[in-house]
Amino acid sequence: VGIFLVGAFVAILNQTLLIPAIPHIMEEFNIDVSKGQWLTTAFMLTNGILIPITAFLIEKFSSRSLVLTALSIFTVGTILASFATNFPVLLA
Predict the structure, then answer these.
(1) In 23-39, which positions are buried (b, 16+ CB within 10 angstroms) versus exposed (e)?
(2) How many Cβ atoms are within 10 Å of 90's Cβ, its own excluded?
C-alpha cells in the first residue's frame, strides 16, 4: 500500500509541477511557447497510451511487479531528464 501511495503522490506531483516549470524550461533551453508546450503534450500522450496498456499488462503480471517496474522507469527517466543538455533530450 505504501508503494502505491508513493507512486500516486509522485504522479500527481509530477503533473502539478510541470506547468509552472515550463517558463523556466523555455528560458533555459531558449525555446518558444509552442515547443515548451510539447512537454505537457508528450506527458499526457504517454499517460493516454499507457493507461489502456496497463489494463492488458495487469492480466499478465502481478500488480506489485508492474508498480515497481513503472516507478523504476519513471525514476530513471526523471534522472535522465534532470541531466538533459538540450530540449530534444528533455522531451525524449
Answers:
(1) eebbeebebeeeebebb
(2) 19
Query: CA-CA distance, 49 to 29, in Å (whole number)?
Result: 27
Coil, strand or helix at 65: helix
Q: Nearest CA to 78 among 18, 2, 5?
A: 18
Total-model pTM: 0.73
Question: Please, are residues 71 and 14 in contact by the beta-carbon 8 Å criterion?
Answer: no
Instruction: Please report the pLDDT score of residue 24 as a whole number.
Output: 92
Close Cβ partners of 70 (under 8 Å, ≥ 6 residues apart):
7
Count: domains in the chain: 1
Rounded Cα distance, 85 and 87, in Å: 7
Q: Which three cell numbers stand for residue 6?
A: 508513493
Residue 57 structural domain: 2-91
